[in-house]
């Protein structure tokens, strides 16, 4: 396999998506927001939240791509670009004006000028002209940062007013800190749908989301690269150290798998080896590694499982403490 063929394999693998149940449920919540807004005629939007690396941005882009692709239409007064679904990230530093400039630039108006009221009017006209059905604002947690404190309430008020004007849903996406923004009652009323993505939990069961995801990615690379017999991502001897290395963080998991596949292809062999994964964990910074300074693929299976069980137990204990604190506060 030459370098051009290797690059094609790696690019195709990088685009593979495994729709495990939690991912499906989150996607369904976004779809419900669209339908509810259409039927009610009032903004009934969704907030997608989860830790960094849990697949939120990827889901946002999948959701955006589920709509018709952007095209052009000829109207009486000219030619316009239709944008059924629009995606952008929240600018930093965030203010109403910087937000408006960022959105308008993505909509094809890079030279938008004037005060916030002028740009807001231009935005509403652009959304109408582009026949936009949904907007997606990613990295919304930037509005919770200390540096956004002065502009936070103004930005929330602007978003509420915009929703009232455009009558289409705006999906907001970010880390769990975004939930604090729903303390604002007018905003909360317009965001009845919550969608949550988290790191994958470890389980040895064949039907677990972690094993399903690894099996889906394994099937994909074996088909794309036409690999011969070798290790499989969902083998217990492989999936346990993969979890220990990443704690189920999808972004780090993909980094490790990508590196291992690239090394396998570079070797010129058609068999994925454990050594490929060992070297991946040696070369990639893995801040969530449960085995700390040790390579999860170089410790015994029993030790690897001990790290995982200790982590899962601690996670459950922390969740129970949080729930108890919430209950005591409510009483």
TrEMBL record:
Under the heading InterPro entries, the entry gives:
ExeA_AAA_ATPase_DNA-bind, P-loop_NTPase, TniB
SUPFAM superfamilies membership: P-loop containing nucleoside triphosphate hydrolases
Q: Which domain of life is it from?
A: Bacteria
* Any Pfam family hit: TniB
For this protein, the record's PANTHER family field holds: GENERAL SECRETION PATHWAY PROTEIN A-RELATED, PHOSPHORIBULOKINASE _ URIDINE KINASE FAMILY
Give the transmembrane region(s): none
Record's protein name: TniB protein
